[in-house]
Amino acid sequence: MRTEANMKSSKPATGKQAIGSKQSSPKNSNSVKHDAIVLLKQDHAEVKKMFKQFDKLAEKEDIEGKTQIANKICAELIAHTIAEEEILYPATREAIDDDDMLNEAKVEHDSAKELITQILSMSPEDPMYDAKVTVLGEYITHHVEEEETEMFPMVRESKKVDLKEMGAMITSRKAEIMEEFCDMEGEIDPQQLQVKIGMSAKH
Hints:
The structure is a single chain. This protein is mostly helical. It contains six helices and no strands. The longest helix has about 35 residues, at about 65-95.
């Protein structure tokens, strides 16, 4: 999920750039093997595995291990949701006539971000820490099911979105975001995650 970004920009890519014309094609589009929907589904599957890893570590009372995986889950989810909100969702609004579905998806993202903020501000030894990570997993499972069974098929069937090009845009944007989350040693910095959530909420 952490592909090196070849496209750096002071402004985030917008969903409209992924519709129709190839004039806005990112330089690294040829290096992306899969389209946006395949890539996003891979993200979903990977974070699902991370939640299972968290459960095992929590059962073993491995404080350090579960904290590291929880921070990774939070980082991946923040990068994923921001990329969707900046690129996928605007393009989807243009391609299909279902604002209610997009509005509900955004509200679900906001609810997940609020829970992530709570997790990041807690001590991993807090009795409620594991419960909040578990509930976050349940939120994500529900959200993923709706995206994969409703939104994604509608976007693909519309044929109004260049999904391969969008895949390149999402890959680049996520790499930019993930780079912001890491400290000098390449470890996830929870404080940077909280800053990014705050910025995203104001967007």
